Amino acid sequence: MHDTAKEPECCPVFDPAPWDYKTHEWVDKLFIKKNLPQFLHMPLPFMYARVLGGMWKKAQDAGAAPEIKDFLLLAYDPSPWKSELYMNVTKEVPEAENVKLTGTFVSKVFDGPYNQVPKYLNEFRRYLTLLEKKAKKYFFYYTTCPKCAKKYGHNYIVAFAEV
Prior knowledge:
The chain is an alpha+beta fold. It has one domain: Regulatory factor, effector binding domain (Multidrug-efflux Transporter 1 Regulator Bmrr, Chain A, Alpha-Beta Barrel). Helix content is about 25%, strand content about 40%. It has helices spanning about 45-60, 115-130, 145-150; strands at about 20-40, 40-45, 75-80, 80-90, 95-110, 135-140, 155-160. Strands 1, 2, 3, 4, 5, 6 and 7 form a seven-stranded antiparallel β-sheet that branches. The N and C termini lie far apart (about 50 Å).
């Protein structure tokens, strides 16, 4: 039997407390942005790893990679065929699309499979209604890879709404 508990972690253990039912005020929060092709809102695994790895390398090479505990990767899907990834950085990164996000963002944590995102989005919309808020844009933070989610027994997904 394969013991996944002894395998090295590639994703840190995620603490949902700072993100669950929280409101964040961001002023010029710095990210680098990269587009990712996908099929019906599902990223192609080999492309996701390549794009994410390239973003992380650029951030590291520029001395702009955040500490792993501060890492944040937001995904926004403007269409079923394209996702925009936003990786937070500590300073501008040469030869990358640097983006600053400013505004009020509400977040809520879900724990479950990726294919339940439409269900989570409906629940999140109900929560925003209770807050009397309307989302301008939704982002998702997939906190662990599938392998680490299985290892930890949790697949935390953070929904963000720019309100």
